[in-house]
Amino acid sequence: MVVKGNQKKLRKQLKKLPWQEIPLQNRTTATGHGRREVRRLKVCTVQPGLLFPHAVQAMEIKRRRTDRKTGRVETKTVYAVTSLAPGQADPARLAELGHWSVEALHHVRDVTFCEDASRVRTGTAPRAMATLRNLAIGLMRQAGWTNIAAAAEHYQSRPDHATALLDLAA
């Protein structure tokens, strides 16, 4: 899970981890969409007490994008957590997952479900809503949908089909 600005306390905890002491564990370079992007990844195991239940590893991803036409450089640091243990996902695998699935999931949650515009901000409600969005996306993918926006539109007007995904009676 990518930790965004609306999760200030968790983001602050992750930012305080000893990233300077952790060696660079993965570096990828990609070119596309008129820019060159370099991603640097550091991973560390986290102790219980992090404001994300079941987190086992934390990641610091530094992205440096260079616009190939203008030369403009943009640098961004992203933090993420995962429940996968080091034996289940080493830094190279996390980099692969982080780049494609985490970014894609965030994009779907933000664009299709307007997550960034959500006004749910107190207590554990934001985490619960993110979990429900992830559940909905997972169920749609399990049902064979590749376009989550189309699937959401389909189920919005057919609640009986949505309950069938859960194998529940309407």
What keyword list fits this structure?
single chain; 170 residues; five-stranded antiparallel β-sheet; globular
Report on this structure.
The chain has 170 residues and is α+β, with helices and mostly antiparallel strands. 37% of the residues lie in helices and 24% in strands. It is built from 5 helices and 5 strands. A 5-stranded antiparallel sheet has the order 1-5-4-3-2, with helices on both faces. A hairpin with a 2-residue loop joins β2 and β3. The longest helix has 21 residues. The two termini are 32 Å apart. The model has no long low-confidence stretch (mean pLDDT 86).
Write the layout of secondary structure elements.
Blueprint (H helix, E strand, L loop, with lengths): L1 E2 L4 H8 L10 E7 L2 E11 L11 E11 L5 E10 L8 H21 L13 H18 L5 H9 L2 H7 L5
Q: Tell me the strand order in the biggest sheet.
A: 1-5-4-3-2
How do the helices and strands follow one another from N- to C-terminus?
A: EHEEEEHHHH
Overall morphology:
globular
Largest β-sheet summary: 5 strands, antiparallel
Total DSSP helices:
5
What's the number of extended β-strand segments? 5
Based on secondary structure, the structural category is: alpha+beta
Q: In a nutshell, what does this entry contain?
A:
By secondary structure, the protein is an alpha+beta fold. It contains five helices and five strands, in the order E-H-E-E-E-E-H-H-H-H.
